[in-house]
Structure formats: C-alpha cells, structure tokens
Design goal:
The chain is an all-alpha fold. 72% of the residues lie in helices and 0% in strands. The protein is globular. 50% of the residues are buried.
Length: 305
Amino acid sequence: MLRTVPASRLATLLLVAVTAVWGSTFFLIRDLVAHVPSADFLAVRFAIAAVVMALVFRRQTMALTRRELLTGVGLGVLYGLAQLLQTVGLEHTDASVSGFVTGTYVVLTPVLGAVLLRDRIPGSTWLAVGLATVGLGVLSLRGLSIGFGEGLTLAAAVLYALHIIGLGRWSTARSATGLATVQAFVITLVTLVGALPGGITLPSTGGQWSSLLYMALVAGAVALWAQTWAQSHMPAARAAIVMTMEPVFAAFFAVLLGGESLTARMLLGGGLVLAAMYVVELLGRRTPGASAEQDRPAELLHHEV
C-alpha cells in the first residue's frame, strides 16, 4: 500500500523545486537585462504573473478575509522593496558579493524570528545556518568590500528575511493561493515605482520574450504560489535554509547550460549547503518549530494586521 507523503516533507520538496527554478533563471536574466533595464524587467515580469494568477485563482483570491488581504499586501511590499534594493545594489557591487550578502537572510531569518516573535530556534537549525552560510561564502565570495551597494543588498536581505518570517507565520494551505496572487499584484506596483521614471522598455526579440515569459509564469507565478503554500507547512528558519539551494542550482545550470566550468569551489560550497539541508531536515525533525497552521499569532511587533 502506498504511503502518504507528509505535508512537511512535500513542502520541503516543493521548496527545493522552487529554488531549482530560481537557479535556472540566472543565465537568462544576465542576457535579458543587457537589453531591458532591471526595474523594467521586474515590473513586466510580475505584471504578467499577477494577471495570469488573477485569472486562474480568482475564486481563491476573492475568498480571502480582510485580514488575509492586508497580510498579502504587507508581504508583497516587503518582497517588492527587496527586489528593488537588490537590483539597485547589484549595480554598485560585484554579482558574487551580491549573491553572498543576499544569502545572509539564512542567518537573519532565525535571528529576527527570535527577536521579534520570540521563536525558539533549535540547535540543529543554528548548525545548519552556519553550514549554509559558509557554503554560500565558498560559492560566492572572491573578496568582500563594504560600500553603498553592499549596504543596499544587506537591507534587501533583511526584507527577504522578514518576508520569509511573515509567510511562515501567516500563510495557510487554505489561503496560500490567494495570498500569492495579492503579493504578485503588490510586487508589480512596487517595482513599477522603480521602472516608470525612465519609461518601460520591453523585450525586442522572440528569445527575450520567451525568457521573460518563463520567468513570469514558472519562476514568478508558480514559484510564488509554491513558496507561499510550502511555508504554511514549515518553520521560517527551515525554509530559509532550504532556499539557500538557489545558488547551488544556479551554479549547476551555469555549468550545464551556460558554458561555465565545474570548479572545486562549486563542489565544496554546494556540498556544505547540502549538508545544511541534511541537518535541518533529519536532525531538525526531532525538535520541529511551528508552522503557520500550528502557531497562529495575534500580532507581529504589536501591529494589528
């Protein structure tokens, strides 16, 4: 007789799949933003995702309560601002440094969760955070200088961490689809603020549109829904560690499809991130944290949502 896959295990597998999709977009984005400004790309990408999600998930979105709607708006603002700050920061720092600083959300998520929400973080999670951080450094860093770009990118990492915490605390399996749709619309509005001053530049070739549609529909709409649903079944700190698989997949696809060479740094860094996944999934199961459905708070930072 077939055994039912536990929701927490399915959530982990789904989130790993999301990081694989995100990782597959790196070499596509690199080529696309050479012709389309980053803010314009983000605005068009999420606008397409939002329209498609609204058409497909209209019933689930309309079923959201006022509280859930406001939660989705808040989460969308966090994610949209993080996208803009990361994009502007990338213009003032090396891509490798940006990747590492952005990845510090793996540390910031449990720290902010403990400070803001008094989450109890098990020792196995802190061990996994350490392994993942070292792995990110091996994968990404070739020197680190602190400047304007790094500061903006660190601010983006803080917002990503808050977004992960918010999803982990307020997303439920019932509301995930509607929350994801609301977030897509709000992210579109936020990124439009960065795109409108210089006008919107659209892709000019079929290949560029194909890349944009893949990132809008698969890496945008599907991934945003999948992350929102997955985080209704797992603690925020665990989700942050799982999402550090993104640069591992980025390196994998860069070698497989982007013509880059496999290096010892990729193998060592990727191995450390995989070890972090092993620690948080196997050792962490003995002292699991609360998911959104297991621990429903009344407030965050004394705000009524």
